[in-house]
UniProtKB/TrEMBL annotation:
Residues 1-20 form the signal peptide. SMART domains: S_TKc. Gene3D superfamilies: Transferase(Phosphotransferase) domain 1. This is non-specific serine/threonine protein kinase. One of its GO terms (molecular function) is ATP binding. The keyword DNA repair does not apply. Belongs to the protein kinase superfamily. NEK Ser/Thr protein kinase family. NIMA subfamily. It comes from the Eukaryota. ATP binds at residue 108. Its EC number is 2.7.11.1. It is an enzyme of class 2 (transferase). The keyword Transport does not apply.
Length: 447
């Protein structure tokens, strides 16, 4: 028995050593922690700091997936691939079975239905029609709760996330050489990567303009979509995963060590400046071949002691270029002295313009995804809410906030499902993926 216990201890130590070694490997995905997890880390408790390395995007799309969509979507969607998983639940790629052409959405399955999950739903709905560069819910209904948990429908971004794109450069010897990545060695350009970062900043700016802070910005949480236009790929980026989104007055402690701002480690949360620091880490990751020195920080000490001016991965003051100066300004440890997001965006835009004359890249700075031709159209059948089959929509008074016209009483049987003793069924039009669609919900009085 003692030998067995010693063997388990040796295995745990070995796994921990492997994980610590992986901190210096830019391929691994860092884990997100809530308040409980961060408190344990600060107390010195050893927790897994990286996510499983399995990449679902690299697997065959026709792998057998036996997951049924919720009843409200059963005639419209079919799950074809798992895109990822974590402590929150899973993300799937689903085909629009109701469409005449191939079209896909992403389904996020959250196994819990607590206030944090509902906060994400609210944030996704608030971002409908606000910005192309911040993900929003789509479909009608865009959210379903069943016995398995909460399901959210969002657009599917077909190019994967920035973490995957950076990984493609890291595994290429010619791209991953010298001080900066040589993106041209894998058929793209540094300016293109920076343009994606600029678009991500626009998405974060949209969140901030609506009083929200993301709190978990990282390469994993920026997705890219591309379409072929006259033989040329046109792409755009969007910020995703609003699970930790909060406001200045209602914000929980959480984030991803290695991307978290120094003040967040001290539970000083809800500052837009904290998002700027995380964006600075991301800009660092897409620019320099070396990883930040606070990578793998388990208790915040290295992040709080960090000084970008003395970072050996960043050129010295006399040798810096404008992009180096911008990264230093975004990684200022004092949030009061950190560069403002709007100023960072203007500087990055000027850097890109001075770096390239490539029209498709410059168009990414001034044209919308629709104007670029980079956006994937959503099938209209996903906004048809008439196939609930008696599914009860429950009382949803919060839906009234998102009405763009006056709520009125719904006419017809089972518009809100079968429910005895519930409030009456009401209807109004809401914005779903830039479209005005009919939404049904229950209220005591439809007004």
């Amino acid at each position: 028995m003692q030998l067995f216990a010693l063997s388990l201890l040796a295995l745990a130590v070995a796994e921990r050593q492997v994980e610590e070694a992986n901190y210096d490997d830019g391929h691994v995905r860092l884990a997100t922690f809530n308040a409980t997890g961060l408190a344990l880390l600060k107390q010195g408790v050893q927790l897994p700091m990286v996510k499983p390395t399995r990449s679902f995007l690299q697997e065959e799309a026709n792998e057998s997936i036996v997951v049924n969509v919720p009843a409200a979507w059963k005639y419209r969607l079919k799950i074809v691939q798992k895109l990822g998983e974590g402590g929150f639940g899973e993300v799937f790629k689903a085909k629009a079975a109701c469409a005449t052409t191939d079209a896909y959405v992403a389904l996020k399955h959250i196994m819990r239905t607590d206030s944090t999950s509902m906060r994400e739903v609210e944030a996704l709905r608030k971002m409908n029609g606000v910005s192309d560069y911040c993900i929003a819910s789509t479909g009608a209904p865009d959210k379903v709760v069943d016995q398995r948990g909460l399901w959210l429908m969002t657009p599917f971004m077909n190019r994967g996330d920035l973490h995957t794109i950076v990984g493609e450069c890291r595994v290429d010897y010619n791209c991953n050489r010298g001080w900066h990545y040589k993106w041209n060695k894998i058929g793209t350009s540094q300016a293109w990567i920076w343009a994606l970062m600029y678009q991500a900043m626009k998405g974060v700016q949209a969140l901030h303009s609506h009083g929200m802070v993301h709190m978990d910005l990282k390469l994993d949480n920026v997705m890219v979509n591309c379409q072929l236009v006259r033989g040329s790929k046109r792409c755009y980026a969007a910020v995703i995963d609003l699970g930790l989104v909060c406001t200045k007055t209602d914000c929980s402690w959480g984030g991803t060590p290695g991307y978290m701002a120094p003040e967040v480690w001290l539970n000083d949360v809800g500052r837009p400046a904290s998002d700027v620091f995380s964006l600075g880490v991301m800009l660092y990751r897409v620019t320099y071949t070396q990883l930040p020195p606070f990578r793998g920080d388990q208790n915040g000490q290295r992040t709080r002691a960090y000084n970008a001016h003395t970072d050996r991965n960043i050129p010295s003051r006399e040798s810096r270029t404008p992009i180096d100066d911008l990264i230093v300004a975004m990684l200022e440890t004092d949030p009061r002295r950190r560069i403002k997001l709007s100023d960072a965006m203007n500087q990055l835009k000027n850097i890109i313009r001075a770096t390239t004359h490539d029209k498709p890249v410059l168009d990414m700075l001034r044209k919308s995804p629709a104007q670029l031709g980079a956006e994937t159209p959503m099938p209209s059948c996903l906004f048809d809410a008439r196939d609930f089959g008696g599914l009860d929509l429950e009382d949803k008074p919060f839906a009234r906030e998102y009405c763009v016209d006056k709520p009125s009483k719904a006419i017809g049987m089972l518009r809100c499902g079968l429910c005895i003793g519930c409030n009456q069924c009401c209807k109004c039009r809401v914005i779903r993926n830039k479209e005005k669609v009919k939404e049904h919900f229950r209220m005591s009085i439809c007004k």
